[in-house]
Input
Amino acid sequence: MKDCNRGKVFLIGAGPGDPDLLTVKALKALQTADVVVYDRLVSPEIMALVPERTERIDVGKMPKHHKVPQDQINELLVALAAQGRCVARLKGGDPLIFGRGSEEAEALRSAGLDYVYVPGITSAQGCAASTGVPLTHRGLATGVRYVTGHRAKDAALDLDWRSLACENTTLVVYMGAMNIGEIAGALMGHGMPQDLPVMAVSAVTTPRERRVTATLADVADVMAAAEMAAPVLFVIGHVVSLYQTAALPAEVMAYA
Ligand SMILES: C[S@@+](CC[C@H](N)C(=O)[O-])C[C@H]1O[C@@H](n2cnc3c(N)ncnc32)[C@H](O)[C@@H]1O
Output
């Protein structure tokens, strides 16, 4: 990329895991960057596309398995770009959907440094394509909402349950694995039917993808038994009734 002859950060969405779902722009940035700063959610299949010569910095983990704090990641990006390096900041899914890409952009802007967003396919979209469960469907869902099932520092969930408890809207819950029992209970407490279908999918669009279906009433038990590995995404709503393994064409089933 021509722009890479001076300090600049590409805030890149790597998509949900399948390297074929990277954008052309993301791939070009990965292949020309001097250094790749990457998250835990970036699949090994995508990291395999980074040239051997490129420096890699893993900010998903520290020695004791804690994530590198966000302010340290911001400082790292600022320092690398200030050295005049071309930086690929690689994140799972899309950088602007529960990705903190805008916080990193803010730090770079404050330091007077260049950045550009490169969008990625968010895991909800990857999940819809790989399972064949649409996020909207005439007669089943007139809209979709992406919500977080986790709050910083494990604070109590503080969601607007009354507005979320709407049967016509599909809910996609990111980061909800630890709290799915509480989420399902609150939705039922606000009027959602006990038999409303729920689908949990882990590692969507990768060879490790796993799917489980349940209802609001039993999703906590089903998840406890399933022992799915992170990352897990939940789709809650009538659209899940369209999940029919046997009816999916081979290409849609490619990851199952
Ligand atoms: C910090 S959020 C990042 C979301 C990401 N920016 C995106 O657009 O998909 C992490 C959560 O995203 C979801 N997620 C991300 N990648 C996933 C994948 N490949 N399979 C299932 N869920 C995924 C999980 O709910 C996970 O807990």
User: Anything to note?
Assistant: Residues 70-82 form the longest helix (13 residues). The chain has two domains: 2-118, 123-255. The CA atoms of residues 86 and 250 lie 40 Å apart.
